[in-house]
Design goal:
The complex is a heterodimer. By secondary structure, chain A is of the alpha+beta class. Chain A folds into 2 domains: 37 residues; 195 residues, Alpha-Beta Plaits (2-Layer Sandwich), CATH 3.30.70.20. Helices cover 25% and strands 15% of the residues of chain A. In chain A, α4 packs across α8. Chain A is globular. Chain B is mainly α. Chain B is elongated. Classes of the chains: A alpha+beta, B mainly alpha. Chains A and B meet through α4 and α8 of A and α2 and α5 of B.
Chain lengths: 259, 150
């Protein structure tokens, strides 16, 4: 806490000592205000330990994904099948209306013939248009940046499906049975990638990321974009990455490399 | 004669009253012995010693607890287990014929036992699973465990 004293008092563009001093003070104050609740807001400890069950998601965290398109094989569908298995997205053989939380897109540059393949799911925008248009507030962004549908208040109007520039959302047309206990979904509501929020709350990775590193090309990296010590934050700071339709200014949490 | 007749009428009325009272008392005794002839819900026993709150409290307030928990979990990611629907379903599972837990489509399901009786529709299970989680873990968890062994 005395790092400030080691530093010269002259103005610097960025004083790391002062920053960590302030962070430490804030964390201490937080603990004093709410005893029994541990704040994971300082440096590396932030995402190193799981959030307690009774602790709300924190806006200190912003979950995101970095996808290296060069490592994504066009024939590989492991992320999609992992998503289907994990969330119990049984289809009815009707591709136009069957649920689709993540899909593989194949791109071809007509000038050069270069082909690429990439997974596209809900991009978990910082400024989500689906949330803007929702008339009931069912479409919402959780404090840690995950964009979700509260199916308790969703009326199935599907404005959000129209508003999403990434075509990320699906509508459940059929009566469902035997849903996964951790992924409730039902007829008449809109749904989309939850970033496997039940896994994140359990300190695990999304199913697609896990499948990609297990059996796929290891193209997907998941982590906390706000934590400067996390692998994903280091990589996006070090290498060029881009967001799809960055021109829309939505600041998606899913970023792509080598696209 | 007149007096005698009125006395006889009085006695007859008294006897009739006594007889009807006797019938009522017998019926009440019968009720005590063999339970009510009015249908009551057959509520299946949950596992464990007791519920998360007293039975009387739960009967009146379970919906409020679930509604509160639902918003906490959905909006904030608070996943405490005490009042979670998932834990209700896990603990109050009713075994069916094939030794697996019955779903809400079966009238023997814990929630349906009362809700059918009270004619109150449950919306929960239009989205939520009405059976305990069998394998909550992803199939990929096994792969990671294998990788760690190697």
């Amino acid at each position: 806490m005395n790092r400030k004293a080691d530093k010269p008092a002259t103005a610097m563009p960025f004083d790391p000592g002062r920053r960590s001093f302030l962070a430490g003070t804030a964390a201490t104050a937080g603990v004093a205000l709410a005893p029994g609740i541990f704040l994971y807001s300082v440096g590396a400890s932030r995402s190193a330990e799981a959030r307690a069950l009774d602790e709300a998601a924190s806006s200190e965290v912003r979950w995101g994904m970095l996808i290296d398109v060069n490592r994504c094989d066009s024939g590989c569908n492991d992320c999609v099948s992992a998503c289907v298995t994990e969330n119990g997205l049984q289809g009815h053989g009707r591709p136009a209306t069957d649920p689709q939380w993540i899909r593989k897109i194949d791109l071809r540059d007509p000038n050069t013939g270069r082909e690429q393949s990439l997974p596209v799911m809900c991009q978990h925008c910082d400024e989500p248009p689906c949330v803007d248009v929702c008339p009931t507030g069912a479409s919402f962004k959780r404090a840690d940046g995950i964009v979700l549908v509260n199916k308790h208040t969703c009326i199935g109007c599907r404005y959000c499906i129209s508003a999403c520039p990434y075509k990320a959302r699906s509508f459940v047309h059929e009566t469902l049975e035997d849903q996964k206990s951790y992924a409730p979904r039902g007829k008449g509501t809109v749904e989309s990638c939850t970033l496997c929020v039940h896994r994140i709350d359990d300190d695990r990775q999304p199913a697609c990321v896990e499948a990609c590193s297990d059996t796929g090309g290891g193209a997907m990296l998941f982590g906390d974009l706000n934590n400067p010590d996390s692998e994903i934050a280091r990589r996006v700071a070090q290498y060029a990455s881009q967001q799809i339709r960055a021109d829309l200014g939505l600041n998606p949490a899913v970023r792509y490399r080598n696209l | 004669m007149r007096l005698n007749r009125s006395a006889m009428i009085t006695i007859a009325v008294a006897l009739a009253l006594f007889a009807s009272l006797a019938v009522v008392v017998t019926a009440a005794e019968k009720n005590d012995r063999t339970m009510s002839e009015v249908p009551v819900p057959a509520i299946p026993q949950g596992q464990g010693e007791r519920c998360v709150e007293d039975t009387d409290f739960m009967r009146r307030n379970h919906m409020t607890l679930l509604m509160h928990q639902r918003d906490d979990t959905m909006l904030q990611g608070i996943r405490t287990k005490q009042y979670s629907l998932k834990e209700c379903v896990n603990c109050h599972a009713v075994q069916g014929k094939d030794e697996s837990a019955v779903s809400v489509s079966d009238p023997k399901h814990f929630c349906r036992a009362c809700h059918d009786y009270a004619a109150v529709k449950i919306d929960c299970f239009e989205c939520h699973s009405s059976r305990p989680e069998i394998d909550a873990a992803s199939p990929h968890d096994g792969l990671i465990a294998e990788m760690l062994k190697e």
